[in-house]
Design brief:
394 residues; alpha/beta; six-stranded mixed sheet
Length: 394
């Protein structure tokens, strides 16, 4: 009797549970893996959209390996070295000569000598572009301090990174400057100024005013003993705050969301992308890194109808091509060392622009909205200087 039960249990265990991916489903998964060079998380999302079947990464990986597919690094290809200096002929050397920069004093460099003049102060040409945002001609007592001088003081603080009480004596009293800064930041004037200048610069670069593609990333910054919300970013070992950015493909900021550093990238992406879509509904594609893959990318696709493309580093194991066993990868070996990742280096360059302002090198403010206002003022100031002094793109 015991022998019969043992044989029956052995037959049941030998049969086992039928595989979830077999037949047409396995072939469909194989075709998707060969057609799309994406991570396993994105491949599972594509397979669910096509076949309506939800599988785990382990099940999909076993199914692909059973069909003879595997991740394979590209073959090593010898890279030609650049010719040493002095070996170029006259014709080739003439092609590498950079155009000479035109120097000279123009009306764009002229400043108003009635107020304080610093390198961060606005010139006459720069003030003419944004003066209507800050000038007020409504009812009430007329202003006794020029709005341009107050804006120059704010630019001086954010560029030099000093405390409000350390403003030079040739500026108005720091209490007056701070009151106007808080009023302008509450009204969103710095963000409005940045949006106007961004559209002007895009049109100057022969682009549409509103972009159709965006790039998302975050930047963790250390905080000081000043206080306020802060957290610990375990990935980058930074205690402070995190700036979630959405830029266009030129690196111009569309939206920013400042949070404590312990907020994950996938959690901070939802509000900042929503703010960018409200401002620029023409955006149809978003480029991101692997931190936004999986459920975050799927939520952005569903909520905003966006095409989320994960830009991986060259040679990443997550996006190595699937090839049949015994075959060699048709792609060359990725270069070693630092390699700019397509679309991701754009937002990294934007972070370097932000670091030019010493006030934003660390988080010195208690309030998150004040940090956001400094961020908008910094990038608006950079765009304003670029619009006036950069040569036109013909």
């Amino acid at each position: 009797m015991g022998t019969k039960k043992t044989n029956r249990g052995a037959r049941r265990s030998a049969a086992g549970r039928p595989p979830k991916l077999s037949g047409d489903l396995a072939v469909q998964l194989r075709d998707l893996a060969l057609a799309h060079r994406v991570s396993m998380a994105d491949l599972i999302v594509l397979f669910k959209q096509k076949a309506g079947v939800s599988v785990t990464a382990t099940t999909a990986r076993k199914c692909l390996r059973k069909q003879g597919l595997s991740r394979q690094r590209p073959a090593t290809v010898s890279r030609a070295k650049a010719p040493p200096q002095g070996t170029l002929d006259a014709a080739a050397a003439s092609e590498h000569v950079a155009p000479k920069k035109v120097y000279g004093y123009t009306d764009a460099h002229r400043v108003n000598m009635s107020g304080p003049v610093y390198s961060s102060s606005l010139t006459d040409a720069e003030w003419a572009i944004v003066s209507d945002l800050f000038e007020y001609s409504g009812p009430g007592r007329p202003a006794t301090i020029p709005r341009r001088t107050l804006l120059d003081a704010c630019c001086y603080v954010v560029r030099g990174g000093l405390a409000w009480r350390l403003l030079p004596k040739d500026f108005p009293r720091w209490e007056n400057v701070y009151a106007h800064f808080r009023r302008w930041s509450a009204q969103g004037l710095f963000e409005t100024m940045n949006d106007r200048l961004r559209r002007m610069w895009r049109e100057r670069e022969h682009r549409t005013a509103d972009p159709s593609a965006a790039v998302i990333d975050s930047q963790s910054v250390k905080s000081t003993a000043q206080g306020g919300p802060k957290g610990f970013d375990a990935g980058k070992k930074i205690k402070g705050r995190k700036r979630h950015l959405v830029t266009d493909t030129l690196g111009l900021v569309l939206a920013v969301h400042v949070t404590p550093a312990d907020v994950q990238d996938r959690d901070g992406a939802i509000p900042v992308v929503a703010a960018a879509m409200e401002k620029c509904p023409t955006v149809t594609a978003v480029f991101a890194d692997s931190a936004y893959a999986g459920k975050c990318a799927e939520k952005l696709r569903v909520d905003h109808n966006l095409k989320v493309e994960i830009a991986e580093r060259p040679g990443s194991k997550r996006v190595l091509p699937w090839v049949d066993a015994g075959q060699q990868s048709p792609e060359p070996e990725p270069p070693r060392g630092f390699v700019p990742v397509p679309k991701r280096w754009v937002v990294e360059r934007t972070n370097s622009w932000t670091d030019r302002s010493r006030r934003l090198s660390k988080e010195y403010d208690r309030r998150l909205d004040v940090s956001t206002a400094w961020f908008w003022l910094t990038h608006a100031r950079l765009l304003l200087r670029r619009l006036v002094f950069a040569p036109p793109n013909i």
